[in-house]
Amino acid sequence: MYEGAIQDLIDELGRLPGVGPKSAQRIAFHILSADPADVGRLATALRKVKELVRFCTTCYNVAESEQCRICRDPRRTEESICVVEEPKDVVAIERTGEFRGKYHVLGGAINPLEGIGPDNLRIRELLARLGTGAVKELILATDPNTEGEATATYLALMVKPMGIDVSRLASGLPVGGDLEYADEITLGRAFEGRRAV
Amino acid sequence: MYVRRVELINFRSYERVEVDLDPGPSVLVGRNGVGKTNLVEALGYVATLDSHRVATDVPLVRAGAASAVVRCAIVHDGRELLVELEIVPGRANRARLGRSPVRRPREILGALRMVLFAPEDLELVRGDPDQRRRYLDDLLVARLPRFAGVRADYDRVVKQRNALLRTAYLSRKVGGTRSQDMSTLAVWDTHLARHGAELLAGRLELVAALGPHVAKAYDAVAAGRGAAAIAYAARLGDGLTPDRPALEQALLDRLAERRVAEIERGTTLVGPHRDDLALTLGDLPVKGYASHGESWSVALALRLAAYDLLRADGIEPVLVLDDVFAELDTGRRERLAELVSGSAQLLVTCAVPEDVPAALRGARYDVTPGEVHRAPAA
Q1: Are residues A92 and A169 both part of a single domain?
Q2: What does the buried/exposed string (b/e) look like for A37-74 if buried means 16 or more CB atoms within 10 Å of the residue's CB?
Q3: For testing the chain A interface, which of B97, B100, B103, B160 should be mutated: the one with the most A CBs within 10 Å?
Q4: What distance in Å separates the CA atoms of residue A170 and residue A168, rounded to the nearest whole number?
Q5: Does any domain span residue A60?
Q6: With bands split at pLDDT 50, 70 and 90, how would you rate the model's confidence at A33?
């Protein structure tokens, strides 16, 4: 145990995800020995993130104003919406450059074990967006695990009767890798989901 | 496939021991309690990442040591592969394949394939249905690794669905009705039926393939009172065929029928997680009717059948028979020897070497507390 401020810092850092007691200590001493200007910038960044960042009122992605950058972009089509669990999934899909529609961030997935049902997600807000008639296509890009699949099925059941095309991202082999290195579960699923060429 | 060399450090009673093994039969001889089973348990751990004797890793590590290491050189198709596993109780195990560490210990599964029969296997016959479901599912995964995913998905869906039913049950008890919860139940139903049908079909196909092997093995090791048979006992009813779409529909129908009961009980009552493997001798169920000797023979037959089936698939696992021959009379010993002769590698443990038929007496190892020595060839 250290005294006062340094131990406070170690304790706070240790609360962060992925940071154990040893790393917390290392980071704390790094900060202690760093240039005051650098530490000042870090402190400002931490404060600003809580003060300035809000959630987009349309898609619930992180934003710095009423609407996020993507929802404000007039070049993007209103006709298709891609549904994801978290803001970081938006960033991942944006990196592909493939998708020119808009997003909807649910804020998680249906997970009864953690007490999360459709009420706790932004599903009502999604249905309201779809109700305007402008949207033709819904792409379900929730995680390919049990909870993500259940959420996708739930949304498909709700949305299909509205006459909107609903699709689910494919799952299979990573591109650029070697077949031999794929684990047997992924490879087995890719086999099941094979398509004609 | 065979294990050419095994090295244990701080595993159970062994501080450090190295044993060189040959293909074909080997016999580990020693008094009770000297550590014969510890040696095969270590190999079993490398094969399945699990002990057949204990549920936690703590007893596997020698008192006073922080971790145990099991190192094996496995020869498969003329190539040697080095597998190393460090068992650290309460933390993630560490594994190496060849000389390089792997990201997850799971990646060493398949490097050593092994079928182990041990006295604990009597539970396969006498224990609860979950023992027999585990036997089937483990074998299913050994034949078709894809089923590891199916099994994990199915278990997860049942867990989530149970959590949902429990909340519904609790909110009913306090008088409220939450229709919102119930709207997602339909979603979990479709997933339960989809993964459940997949698992069910896999098990049905497996039981059909396994049946003749069980009958043959039991015939060899039992004193010959009636034939042993296995049948998949599904809650959905008899006469199921491994037709996935039909099974999926049958599960959905049954879920609809049992909806009220499920909400009343707050748990999932439909699906392959409640099925069993029915074991019969002649016309009678084994459980409750068979003698100790018969039950034991059925358990042995189940393991031998698994071994036979894997061999028929072209997988040549290592076979381990822990403390088997003492329970058999001379005639049955000879028949068992005939059944398992030609194994790529067979490891037999016993207290009295004369119990092992001459045909299986390969290299002999004397096991004393903390030590294993190869006996000079006679």
Answers
A1: yes
A2: eeeeeeeeeeeeeeeeeeebebbbbbbeeebbebbeee
A3: B160
A4: 6
A5: no
A6: very high
Kindly report the pTM of this predicted structure.
0.82
Query: Nearest Cβ partner of A146 from B144, B148, B156?
Result: B156
The reply to whether A96 and A177 lie within a common domain is yes
Is residue A183 one of the residues assigned to a domain?
yes
Domain that holds residue A159: 68-196
B181 touches chain A (CB under 8 A): yes
Residues A130 and A174 in one domain: yes
Whether residues A133 and A161 share a domain: the answer is yes
Structure tokens that stand for A150 in this block:
């259940």
Number of domains composing chain A: 2
Whether A165 and A79 have beta carbons less than 8 Å apart is answered as no
- Say if residues A13 and A19 touch (Cβ distance below 8 Å): yes
> By three-state DSSP, how is residue B376 classified?
coil
Output the domain CATH number for residue A43.
1.10.8.420
Owner of token pair 């929802």? A71
Paired tokens of B235: 């809650």
Asked whether residue A23 falls in the same domain as residue A110, the answer is: no
B148 neighbors B253 (Cβ within 8 angstroms): no
* Chain A residue nearest residue B187, CA to CA: A154
Q: Reduce the DSSP state of residue B84 to 3 states and report it.
A: strand
Q: Which residues pair with A105 in a beta bridge?
A: A84
**pLDDT (tens digit, 9 = 90+) per residue, B53-111?**
888 889 999 998 999 999 999 999 888 999 999 999 888 899 999 888 888 888 888 88
Same domain for A99 and A47: no
Closest CA relative to residue B284, chosen from B299, B295, B275: B295
Which of B145, B180, B186 has the CB atom closest to A157's CB atom?
B186
* A4-24 pLDDT, tens digit each: 889 999 999 999 988 988 999
Cβ-based burial of A97 (10 A; exposed 0-12, middle 13-18, buried ≥19): exposed
Strands of the sheet with B79-87, listed across from one edge? B14-20, B2-11, B68-76, B79-87, B94-97, B100-101
* pLDDT lower than 50: segments of chain B: none
Q: What is the pLDDT of residues B143-180, one digit of tens each?
A: 887 888 899 999 999 999 999 998 888 777 666 555 55
Contact call for B163 and A154, based on CB within 8 A: no
Residues A45 and A95 reside in one and the same domain: no
In Å, how far is A76's CA from the nearest CA of chain B? 32
Q: How far is B190 from chain A (nearest CA, A)?
A: 9
Nearest CB partner across the interface for A118, out of B145, B160, B184: B184
* Chain B residue with the nearest C-alpha to that of A155: B187
